Amino acid sequence: MQVNADLHIHSPFSIASSRDMVPARLREGCRIKGLQVLGSGDGLHPGWRRMWQESPDTGSGILVVPTGEVEDRDRVHHLILLESWEDFERLGERLGPDRARFRTSGRPRVDLGGEAIAERVHALGGLVGPAHAFTPWTSLYASFDRVADCYGTEPIDFLELGLSADSSYGAGIGELRGVPFLTNSDAHSPSPVRLGREFTRLSVRDLTCGDVLEGVRKDSVVMNAGFFPEEGKYNRTACTRCFRQFPLGEAVALGWRCPDDRGRIKKGVLDRARELSDSPSTPRPPYLHLIPLGEIIQRVLGTSSPHTAKCRRLYGELVAAFGTEIAVLVDTPVAEIREVHAAVAGAVDSLRSGRLVLHPGGGGRYGSFSFS
């Protein structure tokens, strides 16, 4: 069977996360979005594990896979997938003596390198790989030029692309040949604008945690779906203060300081991926570029936010008519969407055919889009 999976989110115990990130709201968000598999996020936090264990599924059909993210001593973030909550409890015992930090942060920092973390995860039968691997902060390729420089002799089981990259950004990096690419939301809110904004379609034997891990391990990725890379906050090289964008050569010549306000210039994901590419691009599963339905509705209605009552009402009508947000964006014939709302149908048609203008993000500010 094929399932839509978002394997990287955060709990209310993580910094800048919504208090609404609770099991019931997340399961409902998955149902509305069209996700069958959700990574729990923050699996090392005992309070979060307890919340899931005390909130059994009552028929939603959403499989929750225990997942978590840690920051290592080099400030690289790692995404971890395990088969059970008990495995995360055991992992916490093996990551160091200071377990108190697991009770205070959903995404804790541990005093270990990537190789030691991966070794401990693999000993428990889990999977590990770099989170948002290309972003200029707290990522594999922000700190290192090669996977082995971070993970040593331990293999990575996947690589998470992040919001500012799609599959093409890693397809020309020789060391990633054979490594599955995952696309996940990294959501801090259960809003459908955030949850599932990127997801991975996997082929799995059955809807179990073990089979989902096996699907990732065997690279049973059918499709990646997510942002146009230009929409990400770090796609282009830009000043982190005023967000002015720079060609890479100019940023180097300026010593990575913006001439307008002396803000720090951060290398964008596009430029970093080009630096790392060292071989012909290898084939990858299809990457479907999507824009959250709420943001499309916001543009169509001309509102200030996708969370206005007007936007939420139309969003609810479309989901009620066609089942899920992903069904509206991907599967429903445009003619049928037009019966509910003609302007949204036109926007979805433009999205599917690529008739839109992208305004790239960089330096920490999201990109945007407009329909041509």
Kindly describe this structure.
The structure is a single chain. This protein is an alpha/beta fold and 372 residues long. It folds into two domains: 2-229, TIM Barrel; 291-366, no CATH class. It is built from 16 helices and 15 strands. A six-stranded mixed sheet has the order 3-2-1-9-10-13, with helices on one face. It has a three-stranded antiparallel sheet with strand order 4-5-6, sandwiched between helices. Helix 12 (293-301) crosses helix 13 (309-322). The longest helix has 14 residues, at 309-322. The chain starts with a strand and ends with a strand.
What descriptive keywords fit this protein?
TIM Barrel; 6-stranded mixed sheet; globular; 15 strands; 372 residues; 3-stranded antiparallel sheet; 16 helices; alpha/beta
